[in-house]
Amino acid sequence: MRTDKSDILTWLRNSEDYVSGQQLCERFGVSRTAVWKVINQLKEEGYTIESVSRKGYRLVESPADAYSESEIISRLQTKWAGRTLHFFESTGSTNPDAKRFAEEGAPHGTIVVADRQTAGRGRRGRSWESPAGKSIYFTIVVRPEFEPDKASMITLVVALAVAEAVREETGLSTGIKWPNDVVVNGKKICGILTEMSMTPEMNEIQFLVAGVGVNVNQDSEEDFTPELRGRATSLKMENGRQIDRAALLARILRHFEEDYDLFEKTLDLSGLQERYEALLLGKDNRVRVLDPAGEYTGISRGINGMGELIVEKEDGETVLVYAGEVSVRGLYGYT
Ligand code: ATP
């Protein structure tokens, strides 16, 4: 019944005109009663569906901020990204869930979405604040055919997809803080955590998971813990209106699918570098590289085809910074 609901909602959403009960029965091979039940269920969930005799059904409106498995599926415009979807109201963290599904054979593009995370994670064991009803938390599983040394570029591909999707969906201008923080007006709106699992022989990638957290509808600074105030923001705080999370998630997935397919053709960033650099913050400015092996400053000259940050140090030496355990800061603040 669950699948029928997503299928029927998708069909209604994508139809310009009324859809007759008969069409739905034939399309999905279910009875009239089953169709009628699903329509009633959707109405109970707050969907406004007009029924006109002899014409059929028409989706007039979704409930405000509908965020469920069927709602997200009905908005997908992808071939593989998000086509297998697991939705949780609450989970510890979507990355371990996605890894578990991947271990069990989940196909390329599977996503795990949660409305809330109780133990959201960032890089280097940090945490990601993940309140309910406000944000997007999802992890996508990819099954690359490429060598492990290419994997760190995926995190840049994801950042580009989020930055461009957010810009299109909200009209806000987004920037990327290398390698993968998405920033609006100098504050962080998105963090990405990519993790890799190797085959037992340790010579091939078994799968990658990329976890994404986007602050969407927090109303004010009060919605963040004191440590994050001044550094974090939400899309609603920046443009003053409620954002539809399902629509934004679907848009991120569409961009990611396109960009990933492009990346896979060359296995470097040549197809994406120009767009990435157009959004890269701090280019040609002085940056501070927080390398665990020692901090240093230099001028950021953008990225190379491998996604490494090119930094010119004071002594004239050019360093290629690898997107691993390193953070980069502007000289006077977070970006
Ligand atoms: P940075 O350069 O900010 O240190 P990072 O890539 O190392 O970035 P991430 O893994 O993206 O860090 O995210 C974890 C960090 O993000 C946390 O240490 C915290 O400072 C910050 N953070 C946690 N939750 C949120 C949130 N909801 N919005 C914005 N920032 C957050």
Strand content: 25-35%
Oligomer: single chain
Q: Give helix and strand order, one letter per element, not per position.
A: HHHEEHEHEEHEEEEHHHEEEEE
- Low-confidence runs: none
Helix content estimate: 25-40%
How many distinct beta strands? 14
Number of helices: 9
> How is the biggest beta sheet arranged?
7 strands, mixed
Rg estimate, integer Å: 22 Å
Strands side by side in the biggest sheet: 3-4-5-9-8-7-6
Query: What ligand species are in this complex?
Result: adenosine-5'-triphosphate
Euclidean distance between termini CA atoms: 48 Å
Label the overall shape: globular
Class derived from helix and strand content = alpha+beta
Query: What's the average pLDDT?
Result: 94
Question: What is the element layout, followed by pairings?
Answer:
Layout: H1 2-13, H2 21-28, H3 32-44, E1 48-52, E2 56-61, H4 69-75, E3 85-88, H5 94-103, E4 111-114, E5 135-142, H6 152-170, E6 174-177, E7 181-184, E8 187-198, E9 205-215, H7 235-239, H8 245-266, H9 273-279, E10 286-290, E11 296-303, E12 309-313, E13 318-321, E14 327-330
Parallel strand pairs: 3-4
Antiparallel strand pairs: 1-2, 4-5, 5-9, 6-7, 7-8, 8-9, 10-11, 10-14, 11-12, 12-13
Helix pairs in contact: 1-3, 1-4, 2-3, 4-8, 6-8
The structure holds adenosine-5'-triphosphate (ATP).
Describe this structure in words.
The protein has 335 residues and is of the alpha+beta class. The chain is 31% helix and 25% strand. It has nine helices and 14 strands. The chain has helices spanning 2-13, 21-28, 32-44, 69-75, 94-103, 152-170, 235-239, 245-266, 273-279; strands at residues 48-52, 56-61, 85-88, 111-114, 135-142, 174-177, 181-184, 187-198, 205-215, 286-290, 296-303, 309-313, 318-321, 327-330. α4 (69-75) packs across α8. The chain is globular, with a radius of gyration of 22 Å. The structure holds adenosine-5'-triphosphate. Residues 122-123, 126, 128-129, 181, 188, 191, 193, 213, 215, 228, 232, 327 line the site of adenosine-5'-triphosphate.
